[in-house]
Amino acid sequence: MATHDLVIRGGTIVDGTGGETYEADVAISNGLIAELGKVQARGIEEVDARGLIVTPGFVDIHTHYDGQVTWDDEISPSSLHGITTVLMGNCGVGFAPCKPEDRDRLIRLMEGVEDIPFPVLSEGLPWNWTNFPDYLDSLSSRHFDTDICAQLPHAALRVFVMGERGANREEATEADIARMRALTTDAIKAGALGFSTSRTLNHRTSDGLPTPTLTASEAELTGIAQGVADAGSGVLQFVSDFNDPEKEAAMLRRIVEASGRPLSVSLAQADVAPQGWRKLLGAIERAMEDGLPMRAQVAPRPVGVLLGLELTLNPFSAHPVYREISHLPFEARVEKLRDVEYRARLLADAPDTDNPFLKVMLRSFGKMFQLDEAVNYEPPQDKTLQAIAAQRSVSPQEVALDLMLERDGRGMLYLPFLNYAEGNLEPSREMMLSRATLPGLSDGGAHVGMICDGSFTTTMLTHWVRDRTRGPLVPLEHIVHKQSRATAQWIGLYDRGLIAPGYRADINVIDLARMKLHLPEVRYDLPAGGRRLMQRAEGYTATILKGAITHRDGDPTGAKPGRLVRGEQHLNAPDIVAE
């Protein structure tokens, strides 16, 4: 007679503590882990996990599903990669609070910062909210294939309080700061898990204007952080250019000291200062040793742009000759690019733009690679387009065009622009192994036509645990701990991230031996027929959320037990969906 809802039999348990693996059964009842060990009772449903690993569900603390959750119940691509909880509202961008007259402004900001097209957002967002608690209320009745958590975005808050002055980056007055502090407290008490902001020139509206939060004063940032503290819970998330790492890190430390709230910052290796990340990480490690809750969010592979004829950019995007056909439908453009006469004109052309990214980065053939079926995110130097061109005795531009025309014009190129200054991922490995870092920066739900990094978790398992040949591997136990228990605890979710009795039954059953990343592909399934990149994986035998199997062998089952998580969650707390 069955006494459990689900039993996972005979798997190798990687429990999320970072400790050694062991073999055991896992019994699940009422959405919680009921037994761990040799389970005698049967389950209504059972999963044979012999020869497989069993991990907690993964918690991704850096996503941008703020729009997608209002129209979609599948939090993909993240949910396809073992992720059972996502935290959105990062980098200071989002859609609440928002007055009706500022809706287009916030859409243009998200379009510019996160490459989500204006028509997608303008058609998809229901805008049935004004303040942040209303936004959470609008999500509370929706069901998903992951749990979702929200943060209060600084840009939206600043424009809501200061209007045009906020958008134009004028300095906030004491009254402005007091108002933002109070609204922040309201948002956290309503269920936001934190507050986020951006201090980088890379974040601009689609009109090219800097994000409203770029030059916000330390007084403003401290006041808002104290608003988080006033609510008694919540984290702080920052992204910055860190042109002066020590000065910026010192300011962030003062904010943590003043507020007492945990703060994380984005950390990556930049080409312009390949060793600069060490200074910032060192400052965060010292703060941590001093007992301050500070961490760096790091990526397990290069942050890179995908280029192609079906995507936002390709190496010819700034060429006047290419612009002649850029408006044509995809198939017509591919046909034209195969025309010998047109091809000769294009290859003889040069970019015409003042945009440094288009002018320089899209000509960086010595850092550009083909992304093929093997999907290798640590490719060697002899695989660059420049190296291939030398081998073929042709120009790199010709190689780029030939490779993009493969697969009926859907060939993709990969341009790493962070974490790959030295042509390898040793900096990423060092960052990942630091006690002061957490995995993050996947940007799931964003950069839909240029980046597809919601698959970071699968890269951690395949490349770092199993496949890497260009340097040391990383222990499986370390990676699972960081991506489950460590990330869950950081954002105040103490009810998940461990395989132990009483914890949430958010679990992955993984066939690591056959795990594989597929090539990213383009889908046209967003509102207004919008395009987005999607990447699937093999090897996730089952993904379980709150005791329900949401994915089998990488395919959705249709189960949608996920809900909006409001605020910190503690073990044996009331059901998080009692709304």
Protein traits:
single chain; 579 residues; Urease, subunit C, domain 1; nine-stranded mixed beta sheet; six-stranded parallel beta sheet; 21% strand; disordered C terminus
Structure description:
- The protein has 579 residues and is an alpha/beta fold.
- Among the domains are: 4-56 and 503-556, Urease, subunit C, domain 1, CATH 2.30.40.10; 305-418, no CATH class.
- It is 31% helix and 21% strand.
- The protein contains 19 helices and 25 strands.
- Strands 1, 2, 3, 4, 5, 18, 23, 24 and 25 form a 9-stranded mixed sheet that branches.
- Strand 23 and strand 24 (548-552) form a beta hairpin.
- Helix 4 crosses helix 6, helix 7 runs parallel beside helix 8 and helix 14 crosses helix 15.
- It is globular.
- 53% of the residues are buried.
Topology readout:
Elements (H helix, E strand, L loop, with lengths): L1 E12 L8 E8 L2 E6 L4 E7 L4 E4 L1 E3 L22 E5 L15 H12 L3 H7 L7 H8 L7 E3 L2 E2 H9 L1 H4 L6 H17 L3 E6 L18 H14 L3 E6 L4 H15 L3 E4 L9 H14 L4 E5 L4 E5 L12 H4 L6 H8 L2 H9 L7 H4 L9 E3 L13 H8 L3 H9 L1 H4 L2 E7 L7 H8 L3 E3 L16 H12 L8 H15 L16 E4 L5 E2 L3 E6 L3 E5 L2 E2 L1 E6 L2 E5 L2 E2 L23
Parallel strand pairs: 1-4, 1-5, 6-7, 7-8, 9-10, 10-11, 11-12, 12-13, 13-17
Antiparallel strand pairs: 1-2, 2-3, 5-18, 14-16, 15-16, 18-23, 19-22, 20-21, 23-24, 24-25
